[in-house]
Amino acid sequence: MHKPLAIIPARGGSKRFPRKNVALLHGKPLLAYAVEAAKESGVFDAVCVSSDDDEILSIAKEYGADLALKRPAKFATDTARLIHVCKYLLESLTHEKRDYPVFGLILPTNPMRTAEDVRGAWKLFCEEDCSGVISVVPFIHPPQQALRIKNRFIEPAFGMEYMVPAQQLEKLYIEDGSITFIKTGVFLERGELYGPGMVPYILPPDRSVDIDIPFDLEWAEFLMGRDKR
User: Fold this and answer.
1) Alpha-carbon gap, residue 121 to 178, rounded angstroms
2) Which DSSP string do the residues of 168-222 spell out, in sequence order?
3) Strand, coil or helix: what is 68?
4) Of 50, 172, 174, 196, whose CB has the highest number of CB atoms within 10 Å?
């Protein structure tokens, strides 16, 4: 099978955590962990970072990205969707006669993902009869037992029937952004990453930290420090 393209989207803006993708984690920009995991995996034909930000593109090259491509501003707003970034990039490369039957999407916001995880997800993709593989992590606490506040009082959000021991509830998962592989044709036809034929690559919670606010970065610092002891 032809080696896939790795797409690492990393815009410059973030309202909840300004300059998140260049925030330092153990002395390295967050983006560096995604580029290094992709490169060290040996899975990809090329690793491409897409950004609207010159500093991010410079960091991408410093840490070994094969392509560091500037995206239009309309694909770097708070409302821009990843699917539109991927579609734009894939179509741009096609115009340059660089076609990829499969691509991998790696988000820089999960620095705990390893090169071995990337290889594992790719191996699963190659072995399964599927349209793609998407990394997920199990919920630590059952989301079925969520509470809400209504007229000052707490009540179960989904009904009392779910307020039972957690072992009796269906185990649910959430996409963690570590790695997605999908057939390019399937993606372009659907216009979505989700859909029939997507197989889960399950990660443990201690290798899945979604950096969304500064506290998440502190948690990742702790976990990495623990692993190095």
Assistant:
1) 10
2) GSPP-EEEEEEEEEEEHHHHHHHTSS-STTEEEEE--GGG-----SHHHHHHHHH
3) strand
4) 50
Q: Where are the domains of the chain?
A: 5-136+175-228
Q: Which helix (H) or strand (E) holds 147?
A: strand 147-150
The two three-digit tokens of residue 52, written as one number: 């609207």
CATH superfamily of 5-136+175-228: Spore Coat Polysaccharide Biosynthesis Protein SpsA; Chain A (3.90.550.10)
Q: What is the pLDDT of residues 50-81, one digit of tens each?
A: 999 999 999 999 999 999 999 998 988 888 89
Residue in this structure with the two tokens 């490369």, named with its chain if needed: 93
Report the distance separating Cα 217 and Cα 221, nearest Å. 6
- Average pLDDT over all residues of the chain: 94
Q: What is the DSSP letter of 26?
A: T
Q: Is the Cα dihedral 187, 60, 4, 209 positive or negative?
A: negative
The pTM of the full predicted model, rounded to 2 decimals, is 0.93
